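Notes from hallway chat w/ T.B., transcribed later so I don't forget. T.B. wanted the structure written out for a chain they're using in a teaching module, and asked if we could keep both sequence and structure tokens in one place. Agreed to drop them here.
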Amino acid sequence: MTTRYLDVFEKEKDLKTKHQVVASLDQNDDFTTEMALGSHRMQADELEEFGGHNLGPNPYEFVSGGLAACTAMTIQMYAKRKKWSVENVEVHINHNKDHCYDCKNVEDKTSKIDIFERDIILKGNLDNKQRQRLLEIANKCPVHRTLHSDIVVKTKLLSD
């Protein structure tokens, strides 16, 4: 039975790996997935229109959230090191897949590009030069750099 409240992973649950992030989905849970992210517990889901129950962020919302959080942290860390007055950093992310953006292969229905639109609001006593520098720093956040790098996902099947 799927509910909005988490039955947190039991500490005794025998996890098959020692990874930082674990997702567990039983056959009766539709798409509602228990997540262990380090010492934090949450759940992921899909929208009802996609067969889920909308009881948690969908996978792309997790990716977008990682980019937003990393951007805010990177900007704030840099501003503190420079002793600049940044009272608040707010990062908004929208994700979509654009099939028309990749014009070279526009006839190929599998041709698409993931687009993350990122809007940053900086509150504080900053001049224009400082704001522009913080925009440059936003593009250097580790998650942003990961999303722009060549990525390899190595997968192996473990026995139960």
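Follow-up for T.B.: The CA atoms of residues 47 and 54 lie 5 Å apart. Might be a good example for the class.
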